[in-house]
Amino acid sequence: MARKKQSEKRNSSEILPNAYIEGSGIVAEEKITETLEKNYMPYAMSVIISRALPEIDGFKPSHRKLLYTMYKMGLLNGARTKSANVVGQTMRLNPHGDSAIYETMVRLAKGNEALLHPYVDSKGNFGKSYSRDMAYAASRYTEVKLEPICQELFRDIDKETVDFMPNYDNTMMEPTLFPTTFPSVLVNANVGIAVSMASAVCPFNLSEVCETTIELMKNPDHDILTTLKGPDFPGGGFLLMDENELRRVVETGRGSFKIRAKWNYDKQGGCIEITEIPYSTTIEAIIDKIIENIKNGKLREISYVRDETDRGGLKIAVDLKRNTDPEKVMQKLYKLTPLMDSYSCNFNILISGTPKVMGIREILNEWIAFRTDCVKRRVFFDLRKKREKLHLLEGLEKILIDIDKAIKIVRETEEELNVIPNLMAGFGIDDIQAEYVAEIKLRHLNREYILNRTNEIDNIRKEISEMETILESPKKIRSIIAKELKETAKKYGQSRRTLFFHADEISDVSTDIEVSDDPMNVFLTESGYFKKITPASLRMNAEQKLKENDEVCRHVETTNRADVIFLTSLRQAYKAKLSAFDVCKASVMGDYIPAKLQFDEGEYVIHMIVTRNYSGHLLFVYENGKAARIAVNAYETKTNRKKLSKAFNDKSPLVAVLEFNEECDVFIRSNGGRAMLINTELVSQKSTRDTQGVQVMNLKTKQKITQAFVVDQAKAESLKKYRAKNIPAAGGISKDLPDVGQMSL
Question: Where exactly are the structural domains of the chain?
Answer without folding.
Answer: 2-36, 53-180, 262-338, 366-492, 623-628+658-745
